[in-house]
Amino acid sequence: MQSYDLRGMATGIRGQARRYLPSTGAQETHLLLVPDQPGSFTRQLQRLEQAYAKALTELGLAPDTAVFRRVFASDLINQCEPLRASALTRGAAVSCVEQPPLPDAKVALYAYHVADPATPPRTTVAPDGAVLWEHHGRTHLAAVGLTQPGEGSSYDQMRSTLVRFERMLAERGMTLLEHALRTWIYLPALDTDYQGIVRARREFFTDHGLTKDTHYLASTGIAGGAGDPAVRVMLDALAVQGLAAGQVQYLQALDHLSPTHLYGVTFERGTAVTYGDRTQALISGTASIDAQGQIVHPGDVLRQLERTLENMGALLADVGATLDDMAYVLIYLRDGADRRPIERAFRRRFPDLPYVILRAPVCRPGWLIEIEGAAIIPAGNPAYAPF
């Protein structure tokens, strides 16, 4: 992969990108842009739009190669209207989540682009909001910002939202068990509502054949808002139609992390998909946990960072990858005051890796940090179609 420093794309913006550029086939670009100077939301959004446009030009990417964007905002209930009017929220699957970017940003952007000059992907937005991305006989479905406001408890909203996602899949001949790969679950009141979504997900998965004896989905369950006080749960999800059974691997590192079902939750630590020309690894939200499911290094955020990275490295090793194969990461902190030491330590280890640090409490209060991301490994299986 190639790394790019995109500082200078606009005043007050820190930008980084990593690209997988094979000699033939699809090119993948992961790009993160974060304001690093204080300012009003309107001003930061304008700078972000300018920087994104310039970055695409610098990287030789057409705007229509965007597959997915996530906009992180500090106060969505007051920022929704200008975001709706922004070019950042059009032309791709776009998720807007209230997770303040640290230290001084009111808005930040993660963007994922895929370009294949020989076989351009086709992207369509369906009336029900699903974004369909078709390439080499496969259909990638992105569902973003799914909510069911007014449905009562977090349990009720989680179940209703999963029903909505399952119907979205069924209308296209897909199922939760056979085609869904990853979810992101956001809860504004995570410390009080998390157990409700855990129970609803576990019951819904069991009803649809996802058990410890089959598989779950890679997932992040984290504090985050939807900009609507009536929303207690928001769901983003990814599914792919057209994969053979052997293409999907569920990552384990049992000497480092326990199976999640041992402490009552139902997600995979990571999911890898092998194509003809590469392997992609989707790493779930990962924290400082041991093989017995216990928190490691309580109260020490820097040592928790070390253990979290060690755990991620162990998961990647299950698919023949290392942390150096990561394309981007999102770093979640319970306490924003921990940002400076975490950033220093992270930048020393990964000077070229795109990242953003977000204020977002993790599902157990004792976990001070959580990290998620994706890796691209330049090793595939010629039995499968290329990505």
Structure overview:
- Helix 3 packs across helix 5.
- This protein has seven helices and 18 strands.
- A six-stranded mixed sheet has the order 1-2-3-6-4-5, covered by helices on one side. A six-stranded mixed sheet has the order 7-8-9-12-10-11. A six-stranded mixed sheet has the order 13-14-15-18-16-17, covered by helices on one side.
- It has 387 residues and is of the alpha+beta class.
- It has three domains: 1-118, 2-Layer Sandwich (60s Ribosomal Protein L30, Chain: A), CATH 3.30.1330; 121-242, RutC-like (60s Ribosomal Protein L30, Chain: A), CATH 3.30.1330; 248-263 and 272-382, 60s Ribosomal Protein L30, Chain: A, CATH 3.30.1330.
- Strand 14 (270-274) and strand 15 form a beta hairpin.
Describe the structure using short key phrases:
32% strand; 60s Ribosomal Protein L30, Chain: A; 387 residues; single chain; six-stranded mixed beta sheet; alpha+beta; globular
What is the overall shape?
A: globular
Rg over CA atoms: 19 Å
For the largest beta sheet, what order do the strands appear in spatially?
A: 1-2-3-6-4-5
Question: Which sequence of SSEs, written as H and E, runs from N to C?
Answer: EEEHEHEEEEEHHEHEEEEEHEHEE
CATH-assigned fold name of the largest domain: 60s Ribosomal Protein L30, Chain: A
SS field, number of helical segments = 7
Helix and strand topology:
Blueprint: E1 2-5, E2 13-20, E3 27-35, H1 41-59, E4 66-73, H2 76-84, E5 93-98, E6 107-115, E7 122-125, E8 131-135, E9 138-146, H3 154-170, H4 176-179, E10 180-187, H5 190-207, E11 218-223, E12 234-241, E13 248-250, E14 270-274, E15 279-286, H6 301-317, E16 326-333, H7 339-349, E17 355-359, E18 369-377
Parallel strand pairs: 4-5, 10-11, 16-17
Antiparallel strand pairs: 1-2, 2-3, 3-6, 4-6, 7-8, 8-9, 9-12, 10-12, 13-14, 14-15, 15-18, 16-18
Helix pairs in contact: 3-5
